[in-house]
Design goal:
heterodimer; A: Rossmann fold; B: alpha/beta; 8-stranded mixed beta sheet; 7 helices
Chain lengths: ~280, ~250
């Protein structure tokens, strides 16, 4: 009976590079059959061991670079998947039917970098899921990608605030806040207007859902008197700061890590359920 | 039905619209020009949704062969790139795709999609065996991402003519992406590919009216303004799903 191995063994080209024509027989059959089976066993073992890796800042940056340079992903591709994960996680933690305030208003605060971009994508998907997001985007990068993401939101009738509301106004108007200010590249001092924004966030009582890193926290050591979010959505893999996370919901998102990259950095990622783009870690 | 910020929708449910070739092109142009979506972004959205639709039509547990293998046949243009992204996500969903991508677009964006698949260790075939039995035995299903609404009657040219002849003979199920290859957007081809499953992207096309197989709508990203402008009357997606069975 012919199977996949035989298909490769007959001498059809099988290459993971897709370049020149090669013909293998037995050797290729063994390689081909190992391409997939090794992976599944590895994942089963890791899920049982449950030792997901928490990344340091440099490691996170290396992985990011590899995704773009070695694996040829584009920022807009991965940002779309990351933003979708954030919106999905938020929907699981704060389902529409559970919200206390009507209409289902949500405040999304976007910072000056890629974390902010994730927030813009998240806002757009939240709108499609039936929420009413408003975006605060005080410092916008000049890159075309961010302008495009902004336009996409504006044309979905997502309102953009001109200034950060006071804490008591936020509590009155919004059901929760999505913190997409600073991500894993954050280092050093917080520049305005984000210092003021973060102090307001520390005063609110509605939940905060942070994208990748609670903003203002050191990416590895956390921040005892920083914001204390209710939800953290770690993207790709959690960072060391997540060890200090004390909120109710810790989700993993960004389901795009190639198996080879996962193995190289020994990320030990859990098995996402079905086709879900988020995995609840706690 | 749609969560619009305007006045309430009427109680009667309007029928889902099936798009003509011109409407498909106009919508895509508006998405890129006015709404500033990126092409790579759209292809990622479509490919991801397409993969989810495949898992609904053929759950892992339903596959009859020992390994969850499938063949993704990709054409040279956008439909093919959507196939590449679909293959990559199916890999993430624990399927074992193999890709046949004979005529590759020189555009760097499409090349990026290829590299992404290669680096996921997805094998690429160098030629499609004309012996159909080999395909029937090796794969559980075939994903047809050869020709889409954007292609101008390539079905008579090589290598597509040969590919389509082979695909028409396979006994395993065919899943077509957006438009069954060889069909005109506005009407089905009488002796064309006969897929078991059709995954319409964004909105169904006119040729899909009366499609007798399993029909899925995939891709949940269309701004409400466009939905209204073209009177698409899209069904309501449950929860956070991006695929719905029609």
């Amino acid at each position: 009976m012919l199977g996949v191995r035989a298909l490769f063994g007959i001498g059809l080209l099988v290459t993971s590079r897709g370049g020149s024509v090669l013909t293998h027989t037995g050797a290729c059959a063994r390689i081909a059959s190992n391409i997939y089976s090794k992976d599944l066993t590895h994942r089963q073992v890791c899920t049982m061991a449950n030792t997901i890796k928490y990344l340091g800042q440099e490691e996170a940056q290396h992985i990011d670079e590899e995704l773009f340079n070695e694996y040829s992903f584009s920022v807009d591709q991965l940002m779309e998947l990351a933003g979708l994960s954030c919106a999905t996680a938020v929907s699981k933690g704060y389902p529409l039917q559970s919200l206390l305030k009507s209409p289902p208003r949500v405040l999304v605060i976007c910072g000056p970098g890629n974390n902010g971009g994730d927030g813009l994508v998240c806002a757009r998907h939240l709108k499609l899921f039936g929420y009413e997001p408003s975006v605060l985007y005080p410092k916008r990068p000049s890159k075309q990608l961010f302008q495009n993401l902004t336009t996409q939101c504006e044309k979905m009738d997502i309102s953009f605030l001109t200034e950060m509301p006071e804490a008591d106004v936020i509590d009155e108007v919004y059901n929760f806040v999505v913190d997409a200010i600073f991500g894993f590249s954050f280092k050093g001092a917080v520049r305005e207007p984000f210092g003021d924004i973060l102090s307001q966030l520390k005063k609110i009582s509605v939940p905060v859902a942070s994208v990748d890193i609670p903003s203002g926290w050191d990416v590895e050591n956390g921040c005892p008197d920083g914001i204390q979010p209710d939800m953290l959505i770690s993207l790709t893999a959690p960072k060391k700061a997540a060890h200090h996370f004390k909120g109710r919901y810790h989700f993993l998102g960004g389901r795009f890590v190639p198996p080879a990259l996962e193995q190289k950095y020994q990320l030990n990622l859990p098995q996402y359920p079905g086709t879900d783009c988020v995995y609840q870690l706690n | 039905m749609n969560h619009s910020s305007n006045e309430k929708e009427p109680e009667t449910i309007e029928p889902l619209r099936y798009l003509s070739k011109t409407e498909v092109a106009t919508i895509e142009m508006e998405l890129l020009r006015d709404y500033r979506f990126g092409q790579q972004q759209l292809i990622e959205i479509w490919g991801h949704a397409c993969a989810i639709a495949v898992t609904k039509a053929f759950p892992l547990s339903s596959l009859s062969k020992k390994q969850p293998t499938l063949l993704v046949v990709c054409g040279p243009e956008q439909n093919g790139s959507i196939g590449l992204v679909c293959a990559r996500h199916l890999r993430m969903f624990e399927y074992e795709p193999t890709i046949f991508y004979p005529k590759r677009s020189p555009q760097s964006m499409h090349q990026d999609f290829t590299v992404q698949c290669e680096k996921m260790d997805i094998p690429f075939l160098s030629y499609l065996p004309t012996e159909v039995q080999l395909l029937n035995d090796a794969y559980n299903l075939v994903i047809d991402a050869v020709l889409g609404p954007e292609t101008e009657h390539k079905e008579d040219k090589e290598p597509y003519a040969g590919m389509l002849v082979t695909l028409k003979q396979v006994k395993i199920p065919i899943v077509s992406v957006d438009v069954p290859s060889g069909w005109d957007v506005d009407e089905p081809a009488k002796d064309g590919i006969n897929p078991e499953v059709l995954i319409s992207l964004t909105a169904p096309k006119k040729c899909a009216t009366g499609f007798s197989g399993n029909h899925f709508l995939a891709g949940r990203f269309l701004p409400y303004d466009i939905q209204k402008k073209f009177e698409l009357n899209l069904p309501e997606f449950p929860g956070t799903e991006c695929v719905i069975e029609l």
